[in-house]
Amino acid sequence: MSNSRVSYDEALAAYRPLAERPLQEQHDDVDALLRAYHPDYRADTMTTLKVGPNSGEPCHRQLAEVLQADARIDDADLAGGAIVETDVLVIGGGGAGCAAALVAAVAGAKVILATKLRLGDSNTVMAEGGIQASIDKSDTPQMHYDDTLRAGHHLGEKRLVSQMVMDGPDVIRWLIQQGMQFDMDEFGDLLTRRAGGTSANRVCFYRDYTGLEMMRVLREAVQNSDAEVWEYSPVVELMINEAGHCAGAVISNLKDCRYVQIIAKSVIIATGGIGRMHLNGFPTSNHFGATGDGLVLAYRLGAKLRDLDSFQYHPTGLAHPHHLAGTLITEGVRSAGTWLLNGKGERFVDELKPRDVVAAAILKECAEGRGVQTSDGGQGVWLDTPGLELRNPGILKQRFPKLLHLGKKAGIDPHISPLLIYPTLHYQNGGVAISEHGETTVPGLYCVGEASGGIHGRNRIMGNALLEIISFGRRAGAHAAERRHGKGHKRTSIDHLSRLRRELTISDMPMEQKSPMLFPSCAKFDTDVDYEGLRRNRRK
Amino acid sequence: MNNESQQVVNAVIDGKAIQAPPSLSVIQALWHAGYPRVKGVGCLEGVCGSCRVLVRRKDESAVNIELGCQTLVEEGMQVMFLVFPNPTHHHYRLSHIQNSWDLHAQFHRIFPEAANCRHCGGCTRGCPKGIDVEKGVELASAGRFKEAGELFVECIMCNICMTGCAEEIAPNHVGLFARRVTAYFHSRPSNLIHRLEQIRKGELRIEEDKDE
After folding, report:
1. Distance between B34 CA and the closest CA of chain A, angstroms
2. B38 and A523 in contact by Cβ < 8 A?
3. Contact A45, A279 (CB under 8 A)
4. Is residue B55 within 8 Å of residue B66, measured between CB atoms?
């Protein structure tokens, strides 16, 4: 079958931008399509957890490996180390962490925000499409609620979703008051565009730089607030108190390679996603630091996770050239009306279907030999940007500067040539189970943003991630700040690790791997002589 | 895999002699050669501003500051990572600026050095995004914040212009200030305000169990 596939050069030579390309009527049953082609349904990649609060539940094999791995530290590592106290510790310096830290600091709490790399190093900064909020007069929060649940295959948590969509407009107001700009019409009204799988124009945006604009504003706001920022300070373990509540965290400072204990009355995990674990070998659109650390930390402390077998593969990752594989092209490009074409130049799916459906349809085209083959063994389908430009002259330059910049790096002009795309690992749909305030099942431990679960069911729509991080970030920040009035911890420790090690041994799990992962394997962090402190426990 | 694209170039990155294909960024090249690197690595897409590197190309004496994820490795190139970004000494809170008529005066109180720009062009030359940074500082100093902010649309806060400024103006923070005050004082979208009012009055509610 692969012989029938057309090569990149042949397909490009045959390509012509056209003003009209009718979509053939689709007869595919959506559920059957997902079951046959979506990577979540590959049986060989799933396993059952044996240790921890989710024992007996299905989980992606690669994720299970880090959830059931040994810790990086033990008591000896903490002896004689520095100890610092705070009211609220926020782990993670993306949009969710910044929102939580800002709100907690304004509420009067002493806040430390610890981040693995630099403040703002996150997936937030890379988000392009926009943020959903029901503002347009043809839209209602109810429609936003219905769209979110439907896209998530009705597996989202209803109360969390309804609270988030009602927060939407106020989230936009709050962001404007932090100094964030949005694209507006001539009268100063917010412009909105439509996300795949939704029923109204609801995505507010700033060019295709929505996340960059949001992140630089929030970073500046945090740096000018009373919150203390600790950069290059990955958390390697959480701590517990005498009652089993979360009591702080141990960070490993990458500057001087020392461990520091931060004792906190509440801890907010805002560590983001898992893309850099490259599940099923897929390329990823994610930031360098997206290694799922928060899931591991929370799970070890006893927090319940959910939907550990559901991930989002964004339909439009760049597939050519090879060194840029996985780089995201915003869904905004499809929202604006760009078509997807197979190797024969035919449309094969309604481009504005939910992401999981579009991704599965692309994988199907490729599997059935209608993809375009690259010289390095990759494949994909066309994103017909010249066709969009033909129908809307000037739209690429006006609305998608980041796409044109990507084209420049790739040596492809999207005005003239279509871009070859293939699904890229984009988002963790599930995560740590939370309440309306972002509380996990462990008292004193909160989780917000991509690391948390329950909102998106088994599939997320564009723009709901940026809404979620601010909606829940603010709520968790406010709720956690209130806990500063509670009495402090009598005793703090990492005693939960003895239980972990006992359970791992009883379940006959291999103890070689350490987690959290902290950095992608390509960076070779665990062999870096600069980090002797973190290497001490490595396998001999 | 075809082998014709397997040509490699020689470069020195952080003092280590490496060989790598020229299609790789200097960060990828360092990893490719087997060396660890986590500090200064960020989004790998040129939008987070973390991976600032000093670069000297073969047969050139000039040293430039560029973004490591956006700079492809070249024959004879020397590269050094600039790891820890320099925080600015300027501090302000939007909520402390009570009145937008007072904005111009407040700007010069917060950024007193901006008026001292000597027009050396160091900031503009260094900008990896091609922003006319110097012009932005000039516009902001003249109180033209909206215009100044428009120039900084693509700014990723990599701080290279700060490093290049002899007067310690922190031009990127000037640009961000200009953008933030524009939103803070002048964005009042009527469609958003109307919707907030509807929600406040309880006119819009969610029925969680409504059948679709």
Report:
1. 8
2. yes
3. yes
4. yes
Amino acid at A152: G
Could you tell me if B51 and B109 lie in one domain? no
A519 closest CA partner among B54, B31, B20:
B31
Q: Which of residues 121-150 of B touch A (CB under 8 A)?
A: 149
Three-class DSSP category at A261: strand
Q: What is the pLDDT of residues A506-527, one digit of tens each?
A: 999 988 899 999 999 888 887 7
**pLDDT tier at B2, thresholds 50, 70, 90:** very low
Q: Is residue B8 domain-shared with residue B37, that is, in the same domain? A: yes
On whether residue B206 sits in a domain, the answer given is: no
Q: Give the model's pLDDT for residue A324.
A: 87
Which CATH class name applies to A2-37+313-425?
alpha beta
Minimum-distance CB partner of B31 among A179, A181, A522: A522
Per-residue pLDDT tens digits for A294-328: 999 999 999 999 999 999 999 999 999 887 888 99
Instruction: Considering only residues A179 and A527, tell me which one the structure prediction assigns the higher pLDDT.
Output: A179
**A123 - beta bridge partners?**
none
Give the closest-approach CA distance of A56 to chain B in angstroms: 30
**Amino acid at residue number A346:** E
Choose among B1, B91, B184: nearest Cβ to A224: B91
**Do residue B181 and residue B100 come from a single domain?**
yes
- Cα-atom radius of gyration of chain A, to the nearest Å? 23
Q: Averaged over A99-112, what is the pLDDT?
A: 98
The matching CATH number, chosen from 3.50.50.60, 2.40.128.20, 3.40.50.620, 3.90.950.10, for A75-310+429-492 is 3.50.50.60
Query: Which residues does chain B have within 8 Å of residue A404's beta carbon, measured at their own beta carbons?
Result: none
Range of the domain at B36: 4-81
Look at residue A99 and give its three-state secondary structure. helix
Average of per-residue pLDDT values in chain B = 91
| CA B156 – CA B133 distance, rounded (Å) | 12
